[in-house]
Specification:
This protein is of the alpha/beta class and 294 residues long. It contains twelve helices and nine strands. The protein is globular and about 60 Å long.
């Protein structure tokens, strides 16, 4: 966020929204400075740099992808779009692109290993349960908001595209907020400012059966210290006035489905929110509001 401080940003929420789209790529912040986009709102930055007619970076994503894929782009584009729209499991992606699972596995491997555009994520206690995520925040944004509206983009229908961005941005940013929280924890971990030293941090998901019905369970982030058998459960809420006690109770219930050293581990809990309606103080519980991330 240092580049945004240099661009005179002071409001942490706006800074995180911009960082959630542009990521840590200096080029984009240098372009903001070049065009005097000092302390502008996230949607003004998006419109000016990427969406308006003759925008400075309007061809940025397509140029990146053409450079990577050459002429073999069609299926890769469809897969990336599917993941951006929340199809993160192999069978969901295959169904979305109307192909068999076996027909896209090679492409998924290439998107991860050759092009570094996606990440294959697996829970610590079930390495066969793979989900996929986009690795480049700007490409994630482009496939979520521009790719599907390409006819309007080609026609320079800026108002229509920007209306979609504004109406759906919070839903999009909820997932990006998890990634930003992960980066924040990694930074604190490197400085020794967490109550445990993490050597692993990722997402977690699993399932449970209740009355013969299968229910999926997700934990935003899960951190481990393998040697000390310590575990950190993290919930990230892109919301104001969050009830910390309620969210903590729900997180503790979900934590019981994680089997890693279940009978001998030391458990910690961490909650992120834009703000809390009422904070709580408990042993091995950490709370972070946006102001703490500045």
């Amino acid at each position: 966020l240092e580049a945004l401080h240099l661009l005179q940003y002071k409001e942490i929420e706006e800074m995180l929204k911009i960082y959630g789209i542009l990521g840590g790529f200096p080029k984009y912040y240098a372009t903001m400075e070049q065009f005097d986009l000092w302390n502008k709102k996230y949607f003004e930055i998006i419109e000016y740099l990427f969406i308006q007619e003759n925008a400075p970076l309007e061809a940025e994503v397509t140029s990146i992808l053409k450079q990577e894929f050459g002429k073999r782009s069609s299926l890769y584009y469809s897969i990336l779009h599917s993941i951006a729209m929340g199809k993160t499991k192999l069978h969901e992606i295959a169904s979305s692109v109307h192909l068999k699972e076996s027909s896209i596995t090679r492409h998924l491997v290439e998107l991860e290993s050759t092009f570094s555009l996606i990440k294959a994520l697996r829970p610590i206690d079930n390495q066969k349960n793979t989900r996929y995520a986009l690795a480049h925040p700007l490409i994630h944004f482009w496939f979520a908001f521009v790719y599907d509206q390409f006819s309007h983009y080609s026609l320079q229908d800026t108002p229509r595209i920007m209306a979609g961005v504004k109406s759906q941005f919070n839903a999009f940013f909820g997932k990006r907020f998890e990634d930003i929280c992960a980066e924040f924890l990694i930074e604190l971990n490197g400085k020794g400012k967490l109550p445990l030293q993490l050597d692993y941090l990722s997402n977690w998901w699993g399932s449970a059966r209740d009355n013969n019905e299968r229910t999926e369970i997700e934990i935003d982030l899960l951190g481990l210290n393998n040697q000390q058998k310590q575990i950190l459960f993290v919930e990230c809420k892109w919301s104001d006035d969050v009830n910390a006690a309620q969210i903590l109770g729900e997180l503790k219930k979900k934590s019981q489905y994680v089997q890693w050293h279940k009978k001998e581990r030391e458990e910690y809990f961490c909650l992120f929110a834009k703000s809390f309606s009422k904070k709580i103080t408990e042993p091995r519980v950490i709370l972070f509001e946006l102001k703490d991330m500045q």
